[in-house]
Write a structure and sequence with these properties.
Blueprint: H1 4-7, H2 15-21, H3 26-46, E1 48-52, E2 67-71
Length: 73
């Protein structure tokens, strides 16, 4: 009796797909993602503030339930 787990083929994406998604240098790609996430979080905390619109007093300029970004000063 054979063990099916040892016979199962492992899935490997094609090389072009890995290069397109991750790049040729995975460590550099990871570093770029970390820097980008940090920049977005800092910008959201200190530069812009998302405001949710509630009510219809500013129709048609602002829609009910919309999100606007305002400067934080």
């Amino acid at each position: 009796m054979t063990d099916l787990a040892t016979k199962a083929p492992s899935f490997r994406p094609p090389a072009w797909l890995r290069t397109a998604l991750i790049g040729r240098r995975p460590k550099r790609t990871l570093a770029r993602i970390v820097v980008l996430v940090a920049a977005v979080l800092l910008a959201r905390a200190y530069v812009v503030l998302p405001i949710h619109v509630r009510g219809t007093s500013m129709l048609p300029t602002y829609q009910d339930g919309g999100v606007n970004l305002v400067n934080v000063e």
